[in-house]
Prior knowledge:
The chain is mainly alpha-helical. Helix content is 71%, strand content 5%. It contains 6 helices and 2 strands; from the N terminus they run αααααββα. It has helices at residues 11-25, 28-59, 65-93, 107-140, 145-165, 192-230; strands spanning 174-178, 183-188. The protein has a two-stranded antiparallel sheet. The longest helix is centred in the C-terminal third of the chain and has 39 residues, at 192-230. The model is unreliable at 1-25 (pLDDT under 50).
Amino acid sequence: MFRSNDSSVPCTDVHNTNSNLLIQIGDPQETIRAFLTIPIALIGSLGSCGSLWSIWHDSLHQKTTANLMFVNMSIATLFLCGIHNSMAIYTILTPFENDIFRYPQNDGLCQFESFFYWVCLCACSNSHVVTALDRVHSVYRLGHRKNSSWFLVGVSWVLPVVISAFPLFHLGGVYGFADAARRCAFVKMDSKAYRVAYKFISGIIPLLLMVPCYMAVFHKVYLSQRRVQQYPVQGRKP
């Protein structure tokens, strides 16, 4: 059998040292993803802050439900890009021994970080959906718009909170620190029904609602432009 040249360093220790080094280095793709997330986090955070400031400045002169929708969208984007992405970048780039989310005593903090991510992600998609619904409501003049706008904004946050809270109680899935991804995420999703419901609520249903809404808005605008073009402007000189 082959022996190590240095008898004071067993071969098993060398193997364990290499394994620990690989664990500390982690997946290079995840590191690249973290660096690519940095400009997204900066642009999203600065853009959201700029939008909120602009909306606040405009609201001093005129308050509309459109401002409410843009505030909702900006806050969701700010939470996702500014807060969560910053924590995600930290957990990926920081070596494991300095990672506060990895320790068992901070498992609750890691679960909350995962919960916060999925809530913000779903709220961002829902904010676009409720904005599209509000545009349809405005264009087609359907009922009292102010009350419905507040209701839509509330639903866009309540629904993600409810659907993302199940794994906190180990229902449908489990949040935790994923060693391979070097971040807090789903470590297990053992319920097929929950997986399907989550995909539909967080992605498929928002897409199926948003596309027809904007198609209806564009169709209404197109018909209005055609109607305007059919009638000559009064007082136009030949």
